[in-house]
Design brief:
Helix content: 55-70%
Oligomer: single chain
CATH class of the largest domain: Mainly Alpha
CATH topology of the largest domain: Serine Threonine Protein Phosphatase 5, Tetratricopeptide repeat
Number of helices: 15
Distance between the termini: 22 Å
Strand order of the largest sheet: 1-2
Number of strands: 2
Number of domains: 2
Strand content: under 5%
Largest sheet: 2 strands, antiparallel
């Protein structure tokens, strides 16, 4: 999968993971080893890994992924381990009591470390391989986050974040993500060590990111900002939100969504000025960083946006049919956005990544997007 395509394909999945799976039951995949699954099971899984995408915990998920990584260390499996195993557990961990939360990240550190060792050995045999380099960076980023969330191995987490920043290049599509996410982690590490000045500096430096396809569309997390607010650093956080607006609320960068993003930022500022902390998942759950060393591919960007829009049209169509079934509507009925709110993630119509407008249509008509080439998959 090309890097931009992979990023755009996974970004909405991660957004759903953070928003929806955070309310899931308080049980998750166990940190098993590949020895708990057979070679035949690994083969079958690699041929059809659909179980990753159903949003439910699977005790064999981690060992299957570790087995797949052993067979194809340069393949997509390291990204899947981060996004769909660690991602699931990370999304739900903030609702758990401290002891259970620590167990989640201890398990994650175990399987991310096992995967990293496999990929690292492969990279030693093939120095400079871009796929292996990207997979190693992704696993390192996951480990750094797990270390910070567990409150352990701050030294190792700092080393990872500083290494990823030092190797970051402006020609890489992931450039802006690394700046924001790694400085955010470094700021949280500094806070844990009681270094308020360093935490403020890293918050400011995270806001210097030029943005990225993911930051522009889905926005950053504000976990470091929230932790600083709890320490009374209101002015630093307000200044940070102004920096975020440059890419997240920019009509040229996030067409169709900029006004909504600015409204959200303004609402958060009001809450902060009143002495509160915004009540939003992005202020509680840190983003997962997927690292890739390949250069930007604009064609892949356009194709990925078209695919995202097609998937969102599928969500709208499913919501229409569920509404019709529940309300016993005739097939020529036309639901409104308000009618479908209860059947859609987040309670509202999704936004086309290219700024298009959605037409819901009658029940016997497919939903449509105003952007040419964006249509419901057949």
């Amino acid at each position: 999968m090309k890097p931009i395509l992979r990023a755009f394909a996974l970004a909405p999945c991660l957004a759903v993971t953070l928003a929806a799976l955070a309310t899931a039951a308080q049980t998750g995949p166990a940190a098993n080893t590949p020895s708990t699954v057979s070679a035949a099971e690994i083969t079958a899984f690699m041929q059809a890994p659909q179980s990753l995408f159903d949003g439910s915990p699977n005790p064999k998920q981690v060992p299957l992924l570790l087995g797949a990584i052993q067979r194809e260390p340069a393949g997509r499996w390291a990204t899947f381990l981060q996004a769909y195993a660690f991602g699931f557990e990370h999304a739900r961990a903030w609702r758990l009591p401290p002891a259970s939360r620590a167990e989640v990240y201890t398990r994650a550190i175990e399987y991310l470390t096992a995967a990293r060792e496999t990929v690292s050995r492969a990279l030693q045999a093939k120095p400079g391989n871009r796929e292996l380099t990207g997979n190693l960076g992704t696993l390192d980023a996951g480990l750094a986050l797990a270390y910070v969330e567990s409150g352990t191995q701050a030294k190792e987490a700092r080393a990872i974040a500083e290494t990823l920043l030092a190797s970051n290049t402006v020609t890489n599509w992931n450039y802006g993500n690394v700046i924001y996410d790694m400085h955010s982690l470094l700021g949280r590490i500094a806070l844990g060590e009681g270094d308020m000045a360093a935490a403020r500096r890293h918050l400011a430096e995270s806001g210097q990111t030029p943005g990225s396809p993911q930051l522009d569309s889905f926005g950053p997390d504000f976990v470091l900002a929230g932790e600083l607010l709890r320490k009374g650093e209101r002015d630093a956080v307000l200044a940070h939100l102004d920096k975020v607006a440059v890419f997240w609320a920019n009509p040229d960068r996030s067409p169709g969504s900029a006004a909504e993003h600015q409204k959200k930022l303004d609402t958060w500022k009001q809450t902060i000025r009143a002495g509160g902390i915004p009540d939003d998942p992005s202020w509680r759950v840190a983003r997962l960083l997927l690292v890739d060393s390949k250069p930007t591919d604009q064609t892949a960007v356009r194709n990925a946006r078209r695919k995202i829009c097609g998937n969102q049209l599928k969500w709208i169509e499913a919501a229409k049919q569920n509404w019709a079934l529940d309300k016993r509507k005739a097939e020529d009925a036309t639901p409104t956005a308000e009618d479908l709110a209860g059947y859609l993630q987040g309670g509202r119509l999704p936004k086309c990544p290219d700024g298009g407008s959605y037409v819901i249509g009658k029940l016997n008509q497919p939903p449509a997007c105003s952007v040419s080439g964006h249509e419901l998959p057949k």
